[in-house]
User: Fold these one by one.
Assistant:
Number 1:
Amino acid sequence: MPAPYARHRKQIEEILAAWGMPPANAASTAEVMAYADLHGIDSHGISLVPGYYTRTKQKRVNIAVTPSIVRESPVSALIDGGGGFGHVTGRLAMDIAIGKAKAAGVGISAVRNSLHFGACGFYAKMAADAGLIGMVTTSAGGVQVAPTRGAEAKLGTDPLAFAAPGRDGEPFLLDMATTTVAAGRIRNKANEGLPLPPGWVLTKAGMPSTDPEETGRGGFMTSLGGTAEGSSYKGYGLAGMVNILAACLSGASLITDPLHTKRPLQNIGHFFMAIDPGLFRDPAEFRADVVTFCDALRATKPIDPDQPVLVAGDPERANAKRRMQQGIPVGPNLLTKVRAIAEECGAPWLLGN
Amino acid sequence: MPAPYARHRKQIEEILAAWGMPPANAASTAEVMAYADLHGIDSHGISLVPGYYTRTKQKRVNIAVTPSIVRESPVSALIDGGGGFGHVTGRLAMDIAIGKAKAAGVGISAVRNSLHFGACGFYAKMAADAGLIGMVTTSAGGVQVAPTRGAEAKLGTDPLAFAAPGRDGEPFLLDMATTTVAAGRIRNKANEGLPLPPGWVLTKAGMPSTDPEETGRGGFMTSLGGTAEGSSYKGYGLAGMVNILAACLSGASLITDPLHTKRPLQNIGHFFMAIDPGLFRDPAEFRADVVTFCDALRATKPIDPDQPVLVAGDPERANAKRRMQQGIPVGPNLLTKVRAIAEECGAPWLLGN
């Protein structure tokens, strides 16, 4: 039985607090994770609890850390995440970028020494909710993508998010990995025993494959575009942009560093930018144009009348509306795992069976 | 016989000046166009002369215009392109963004009322040459791309460019349309009578096609990703980002506006951003990390030892090196067309037969 959003969120909060995360940080982190589950981004919510717990037990995260500002200007901040999970740090970094954009027109925060921070889109949406344009990138923890022409993993899923305010509560909100698909979609095909569509993965020799078990045998995920003929160099190039903004600018560990995944604390980098459209024109006119643009796209004649054309952010909002009414579904295997973790660390169990 | 770069560039300059473009503007515009030809971006150099000439004769461009600054802050400028070709305006806009980034750390120029400005990468590279990160987007003139799930063209090729300084003369330089491929690559297949790889185009009903004549029959180009299963919603989302930055922010015409292609002067918008890495860390350390990152990618074990892994900007630099030595090839049909234009407008002919 899916739990209501508030209880689902509270469950995550109780577990994080039981690990020793300070209460305010646990509440803030749980909000980011529950946002993902509410919006149907199931790879970035409660499903992260088992991996986060392993890392916590291994002391490969500073669970009680507070991020600190290292360097600052009227338009920028460099923030040290202190080796903690990145959610509290990410919210602070985007809050600072938003504050600077409101005062100076643009604000950029670069973060180093952080860890996984959940869904990029959460932070980009913060800017849009404040009436600003938001852009967010992060370096990745895992190395699983081969560059175009390559037969060796050198990159991660390397996501970026972009948001712009439109109608209240309906920002344009793009949140995408620069790979063809997320790892979770490959896992789903494997679980169902189905072949993959062409272009999703490569063998370890770099040859095309449709086997959903390929990445478990040393194969690679592909950059957006999938194949050389599908212009995978573009997805690969975007991954380069993401890493330059998130890691080179902040001084975080490079994903191409052989020690990137081996150090006790991963040094992940993030990039947060907010731009005030009022620098250029009446912000209300800007928002009206975003609305006109998005509505024109939605009004496109659809291939299938039952599958209307959507705009970035629409599918996630539809999920959130449904799940706010019906509760947040969690698969039985995951639920069992999370319950065992709650019991082990002494957190109350709120989600039923 | 391919002409040397300097003569090729001078030929373009002479033709533009013969149309009534002021001499300094003709020289500046010709430099941007010849940059594209030198770097192998043949779609954005001398091949534009016939289309630009038609537009000039139809008085659908203000050939002698000077761009003007409409609004300014320490980190931003809004620029009116005056209905001229966008190259002079684009260089001014990026120069202003660079100047502001050097003084304040970040600079953003939004341009409205402009026209086609050539290759985005030229302007992003200006920032990298100045030691800064550069990002550029532009709205498009032509409407030829259907949104994911759509059977109606609503978007253009909607390109973006991103550059970061590395080794001197070797910036990371990504310049990409957010479509699967450029229109020119479809034309090339049509010229050779070859079928297209799957995912490049759709029929006018939105069905997959491999017919290179499809777009001439009302079919559409696809967003990067090619198909729904290949995650074309990501290329489509990036096109949305490009249009919001280039058109909504500046107040240019929206590509979804039914009048976008019909007004006498198209009101194209551009976006230029420069970021000083010195806001966050020692710029030399930033550049060293970009070099380390790019070199690690280049060192990836290749699928085919004769096809080494490259980094964004490498293919274009290799073209430029070769063409600087061997001259700039122009196909016989295009050469004949350009020669006829030179004769008609009274420009000297420098390129031989």
Number 2:
Amino acid sequence: MMAAVTAPLAGERVLLETALRDAIPRTGLVRHYETVADYPRRGGKRMRPMLCLAACRLYGGASADALPAAVALELFHNAFLVHDDVEDDSTRRRGLPTMHKALGTARAINVGDALSALAVVSVAKGVRCWPAEVAGAVSIEFAHLLQRTTEGQATELAWIAEDHYDLDDGDYLALVREKTCWYSTVHPLRIGALIGSRGRADIDRLNDFGFYLGAVFQIHDDIENLQAGPDYDKDALGDILEGKRTLPLLHLLRTASPSDRSLALRVIGPHGSGAPAERTATVRELMDRYGSIEYARHFVDALSGLALAEFRRLFNSFPASEALEFLFTLVTDLGKRTRRYSRPARVVPA
Amino acid sequence: MMAAVTAPLAGERVLLETALRDAIPRTGLVRHYETVADYPRRGGKRMRPMLCLAACRLYGGASADALPAAVALELFHNAFLVHDDVEDDSTRRRGLPTMHKALGTARAINVGDALSALAVVSVAKGVRCWPAEVAGAVSIEFAHLLQRTTEGQATELAWIAEDHYDLDDGDYLALVREKTCWYSTVHPLRIGALIGSRGRADIDRLNDFGFYLGAVFQIHDDIENLQAGPDYDKDALGDILEGKRTLPLLHLLRTASPSDRSLALRVIGPHGSGAPAERTATVRELMDRYGSIEYARHFVDALSGLALAEFRRLFNSFPASEALEFLFTLVTDLGKRTRRYSRPARVVPA
């Protein structure tokens, strides 16, 4: 649908790509910065920076004002990806080997730190330009974003390290809020609105919308990992082997017969036993039998509805604009995303 | 000597320890933050934050103004230590197991990221309080600090990964400037002076002093690792096994006979062959034979002299103060530090 017409904020997308490229040095330590540019160059949806630019426009700002923050959001995101891939020992990212598989753990850790450093450089450039009140508030937003994301990551890694599976949907949503929503949706919206309104917008009003949007995004990611088609560009079914507590997995563990539950617990996670392909096939079969993916799909429908309702509540009185259309398209497209995967899944061994 | 009288800036030290403790949350994710607090609690000289507080006082500021920056410097330092220990696969830090040996690589990476996040929180608190000009300038200083440190780390890791040993003292000093001096001495001084003078000091004048001081500090560290006594609290001789290009090692490779050079190259670094204790003993014996440690000691004497000369040039016209005394003591104590190790070394196997 989006391909048929000029996508909303197409101009911002060009601005962003240029600024992102310019944020990574091309002189000096050329080989180092080639590796630093690797993940950002692999593409991606740029959802986080685009949310920030859209919010800035919606609240009356010029896109250029929010560009340093948008670039920083994308660089931090890529920093998290590099470190996450080491932490999960993933093998593929956007169709290519993960950083640590290509360069080794030591250099991958440093590449992640270098991406964070360049993100901080971009924020600092903003701090020099934004009005003092805005600069202080945006600094606090970024600090909160980093703190919460590492807290979420700490919780998930502790669950995995300690084989903790006694979790309900509330635990899952609390985790997703920490590890995904703050940095992916809530703060991008808040930061954009802060800059666009020069500190006058009531940005707390955006939190629920951001949370629903981020949760929809994460659950889709979880479902996609389970139902990966041939064009999937990460480790298909990797979440099962890494021990990720996804909504379908928690549903399975909650609803399965005692013997099926024991079977699942035996094969999932980094301490699971058996050949990887067999382990993932076992869990996928159980999930099909218990309707766990279908459950997650219904769950995501409900969250999409909540996101749409929040969108209306927040922006009903806003005049039509490209930024508003961008946001609306994002909300409705995300809502429709699982439909693409609703056919019975072909299980692809990792 | 320092123990006989009240150390200069003893009050600042107390302020700093309190602020550092308060910068790490004690509620919420209690277990996570226990691991985050681990390295900072292990102690250390607090050289970086104390340099910042001293510079702030010297340039007319109150210590409290620089406290958020000082805390951030110590937290970033600890973040680097956690990640460095993973990258070097070190086993001991301040007398205890390194973070990744205790918690595994995945969680150690995240603990490092969490320490960085808390550092960013501390900077953001400062940005809200400092005058706008100072806030912008300090943000840029921290950004530069992070970028340069990861660049230095990238260079060293590339040398190690690629078995690159064809390096001279100039390469060594350039590396030390990047990986150590910016974050350990140059930026702490610059940031303190910026805050203390409310942006009026010519902070570029501090660069050479900071560089000499940081290089002295790093070369001492390298020598200590080679001549570790029984109270040494890191991996004694670990630098040899990790393939660190230290000044004594480069001297050895430059001056040794072709056969001794080949012998050294065979056993040093992560790709070296043989039992660790034998490898380190071989290199230490060669260093003794070629006077490599003695060479480094003379080198450090020269740098200490340069640091002292810069100290005089910079601060000759400053009135006597506790902050000036602190700096002078630091410069002269650092200069004397190798003397403690000047007896023929006892080789301690790793």
